[in-house]
Design a protein that fits this description.
The protein is an all-alpha fold. The protein has two domains: 1-94, Orthogonal Bundle (Rna Polymerase Sigma Factor, Chain: A); 97-181, Arc Repressor Mutant, subunit A, CATH 1.10.10.10. Helix content is 86%, strand content 0%. The chain has helices at 2-32, 35-51, 54-58, 62-91, 99-122, 125-136, 141-148, 152-180. Helix 2 crosses helix 4 (62-91).
Length: 181
Amino acid sequence: MRTNQYLKALRKLEEIYDLTFGYLYTQGFIFCGDKNLTKDAIQELFLELCENPHLIQRINHPRNYLLVALKRKILKSKKKNESATTQLIAADVSKELSYEELLIRSQDDLNRQASIQKALASLSPTQRKILKLRFFEGLSYEEIASATNTSKRTVYNQIHEAIKRIRKYVLFGVVLTYMIS
């Protein structure tokens, strides 16, 4: 009997994973800005749920529960990493950036921001809308297709073209910045 319940819980967990991974990854990346940290935190979260399948049965709103749990894991991991980083910085206090280096870095950041702004401005309104739905609202390709009255294939193509254009602008801006300096 327990084996049946365990298998049932694991099937539900697998279904939840398939339905929420894209959303969790997007939200986690927006939250921390680190792809690897986000993936690791998601894997840890689902491993813990595999080890405690009885928790799965108690979750009423899996998407919300998992998002909160993911953010907590990310914060815990960042805190742990910051502690290690603080120790490294304390060991290398003598190496501070000069005023000129800070200005150069600041200018590089401004140039990157300008490149990203130009890239986003070059997108069609449809591409901007689809990117917003996918990466900021965490909708699946099917949900976007339904919301925009287009096919799933069109959504894939629009996202692909938009990302390709953004990469071109950002890469061109970075290369141009280094050629000038």
